[in-house]
Amino acid sequence: MNRPGRAGSRARMNKRGVPMRRCVGCMTSFPQKEIVRIALLDGKPAIDKDGRMSGRGAYLCRSMDCFDMAMKKKRLAYAIGARMTADEMAVFREEYLRTIAGAEVNE
Ligand SMILES: [Zn+2]
To answer: Smallest Cα–Cα separation from 39: which of 27, 55, 23, 24?
Structure first.
């Protein structure tokens, strides 16, 4: 009775049973704790630092290249259903930059 997740489960696991999430920038899967979740908060994207925000979410690995790619291709906005002006996008980019620069994984 120790089978891995059933087919059709939304949570993708790697071989070691680590939940994997796919970056909307490079489309590569990373362990959940190594990737940043972006959630929708009041119609705008918000960085879900604790992974506690409910609702739609998208994931980005800790790379500004991926952030910019996701913004340029509108993958992030599409994934979470957000609408952003260029100004809001710039502000959010700053916040994301601070998050990946400051938040080293504390274990
Ligand atoms: Zn990425």
So the answer is: 55
